[in-house]
Design a protein that fits this description.
single chain, globular, alpha+beta, six-stranded mixed sheet
Length: about 220
Amino acid sequence: MQRRSESHGTAGASARREHERRQARREQEKLRQHPRIGKLLLAIQEAPQHEKRWAHGAEGEELVAAALAKRCGPDVVALHDRRLPGTRANIDHVVVAPRGVWVVDAKRYSGKIRVEKPLLGAAKLTIAGRDRTKLVDGLAKQVAAVRDAVADIAPGTPVQGAFCFVEGDLPLLGTPQIKGLELLHRRLLAKRLNAAGPLDAPSVSRIAAALGDRFPSA
């Protein structure tokens, strides 16, 4: 019998494809411009940062998926790399657990990760001192889309969004939140997902199957 924790979809697949597409395009252009020494130039020159970021991001998604597969119990179902209908965006992970549905955005940044709350104005997400609040807006849109779908599939089921950081320094005490989204590392995310809740195993499976149809593999 299959374990219900078996993941669906391939984590990081769309990011991997984008990395390969950009790499192939760069290599073809280099060979076209320098037919005699193009291969040598490709061997000694580093790939540009915009290309590396796609591979880096794919690895982050893969690390989160591996952690979920290792740490989550049999009543947790993870859907990886799902397409957000009507957009060019994808959702890294949609996880159905006894406590409800989680929309998880995998991130791989180095440096301090903080939520800054000024006296005036909205809270900001900063990573290594840089304002990364746009990440919050992106995840919030994903959560809203999944929440609308869940309202049709299983009304009343909670939907929660979270960032899962595979690198970087989160605060040692407390769990930072911004706009209702938690900032977690992999171990704490798995703990959240394994917690007891109102959904039994058949309900988890049913909701996961329906969400898989609503949000197909990217």
